[in-house]
UniProtKB/TrEMBL annotation:
Keyword Amino-acid biosynthesis: no
Biased composition (Gly residues): 1-26
UniProt xrefs under InterPro entries: Ala_racemase/Decarboxylase_C, De-COase2_C, De-COase2_CS, De-COase2_N, Orn/DAP/Arg_de-COase, PLP-binding_barrel
Cofactors, names only: pyridoxal 5'-phosphate
Protein name per Swiss-Prot or TrEMBL: Diaminopimelate decarboxylase
Region annotated Disordered, chain positions: 1-43
Orn/DAP/Arg decarboxylase 2 N-terminal domain segment(s): 95-328
Coiled-coil regions listed in the entry: none
Length: 485
């Protein structure tokens, strides 16, 4: 499946738009859709149908007051849009591996779905690697990037052929020792921090002057050290960068990639050989949480990169991408029953079953991470009615446990449902165990193939956590552990 071209070190990257997984995606399509998620209005219709069907089929109701749903056709469409966007700007036969950042949605069936659409996995912990393996993603489609890899993790990755990006000189020393003692088929690179600056969310900006990630390229002596590292190690064939996630302007992301490309060119020129053969441009495409429109799109980003860094796409370099949020966010919805509708200080408050446990970022940093809320009635139909300023609260026992504060929505009443939109990445799959609240069930959905317009099929992605599991995870096997000390 490799083109045998520039990316010789990346044994199994796909080329020319062929599906890396040999899956059923729209392989070879060079048509660039204007959206990363299929048609945005179709997605809204599918979501409304799914909420109604979830209530009708009893997945959601008084006994199951919170569930999460994943739009399977939407996920497929985003994967197709990603591949098409880069196919449209790369020279024919350029090896390209799109590796999904597993941390965005660490769910095995999601990884498998993406793999069948030609998307591999970027992992950053032993747990994430285990998930990628459980999804059947082969080492040649997997990239390991974590900033704190132990010697054992490095040994295992290099023994199995997983691509590894070294974060810093000390990690490179460890890799040296492993490479000396055993041959490896792993493509190996160094992560650089181009220090191009941060975006609007400090916590997610990885290319600031003092970021903890990678080798800080503009620090004194860093560039020379990197060139020397490649000169001494012919097996160093990649460069990696990831400028940040959400809040980074596209122009800054492109600048980070441009700096990394310039470094690759400098290394190859000074070494007099094409040693760096693959550039890993990271992920970070922001997601629009303000409406149903998909913006920016993969196509826009790929075109911008092609303008700013044309040499990256002329066939001399293989490419790796690591998108996470932009592949999944708009395809996930948390839906929670309104257990009580009350009023306090003149403000209506809908007390629901979705709060910090499924939306930790929004609850703790509501200004940075506002979520759209959609109101549905007790039958799961979109709720009409005049907008009323209200709070949508969660079930946790602290005052800040709000999905939305002072939001204008049709008035939520007892038995209605509140849906937190665009939560497919970094939300319900990132459970926060406050109040020992159970992890909710997650279902994938798709329109039934033969069914009428209103039929929806569901598949379990993850069952709801049971009380026994909560007890077991909380030391339940050793209740007297402390009393004997
Ligand atoms: C988090 C992360 C990504 C994915 O970022 P998104 O914003 O979800 O696209 C990719 N690469 C690395 C190294 C990361 O840490």
């Amino acid at each position: 499946m490799s083109s045998g071209g520039a990316g010789a070190s990346g044994g199994a990257m796909s080329s020319g738009g062929a599906s890396a997984a040999g899956g059923a995606g729209a392989a070879g399509s060079t048509e660039v859709s204007g959206s990363t998620g299929g048609d945005d209005s179709d997605r809204v219709l599918r979501r409304d149908e799914a909420v109604r069907a979830a209530v009708e089929q009893g997945l959601l109701g008084p006994g199951a007051p919170v569930v999460a749903l994943l739009d399977v056709p939407g996920i497929r469409a985003s994967a197709t849009a990603l591949r098409a966007a880069f196919d449209a700007v790369t020279a024919p036969d350029t090896p390209v591996l799109h590796a999904f950042a597993v941390k965005a949605t660490p769910l095995v069936p999601v990884l498998r779905l993406l793999y069948e659409q030609g998307i591999g996995a970027e992992v950053a912990s032993p747990g994430e690697l285990a998930l990628a393996r459980a999804a059947g993603i082969p080492p040649a489609h997997t990239v390991l990037d974590s900033p704190a890899k132990t010697p054992a993790e490095l040994r295992e990755a290099l023994a199995s052929g997983i691509a590894v990006n070294a974060d810093n000189p000390q990690e490179l020393d460890r890799i040296d020792a492993i490479v000396r003692s055993a041959a490896t088929g792993s493509p190996i690179g160094i992560r650089v921090n181009p220090q191009v600056g941060g975006g609007s969310i400090e916590a997610l900006s990885t290319a600031t002057a003092t970021s903890k990630f990678g080798v800080a390229l503009r620090d004194e002596g860093a560039r020379e050290w990197i060139v020397g590292a490649y000169a001494d190690r012919p097996w160093l064939t990649r460069l990696h960068t990831h400028t940040g996630s959400q809040g980074i302007p596209l122009s800054l992301m492109a600048q980070g990639v441009a700096e990394t490309y310039a470094l690759a060119e400098e290394i190859n020129r000074r070494l007099g050989r094409r040693q760096v053969d693959t550039i890993d441009i990271g992920g970070g495409l922001p997601v629009n949480f303000g409406s149903d429109a998909t913006a920016p799109t993969y196509a826009q980003y790929a075109r911008l990169l092609a303008e700013v860094v044309p040499g990256l796409f002329d066939g001399r370099y293989g490419l790796v991408t690591e998108f996470g949020r932009s592949l999944l966010a708009k395809h996930g919805t948390v839906i929670a029953r309104v257990e009580y509708a009350k009023s306090a200080g003149g403000r209506p408050v809908a007390v629901t079953h979705a709060g910090a446990q499924v939306a930790a970022r929004t609850v703790y940093a509501p200004v940075t991470w506002p979520l759209r809320i959609a109101a549905y009635d007790a039958k799961g139909r979109p709720k009409a009615g005049p907008d009323v300023i209200q709070d949508v609260a969660g079930p946790a026992c602290f005052a800040g446990d709000l999905l939305a504060e002072g939001r204008a929505l049709p008035l939520l009443e007892q038995g209605d449902y509140a849906a937190a939109l665009d939560t497919g990445a970094y939300y319900f799959a990132h459970h926060y165990a406050y109040n020992s609240l159970a992890r909710p069930a997650i279902y994938g959905f798709a329109p039934a193939p033969e069914g009428g317009q209103h039929e929806v099929r569901f598949a379990v992605v993850r069952e709801q956590q049971t009380l026994d599991e909560i007890v077991a995870e909380s030391g339940g096997a050793q209740p007297s552990a402390l009393t004997g000390l």
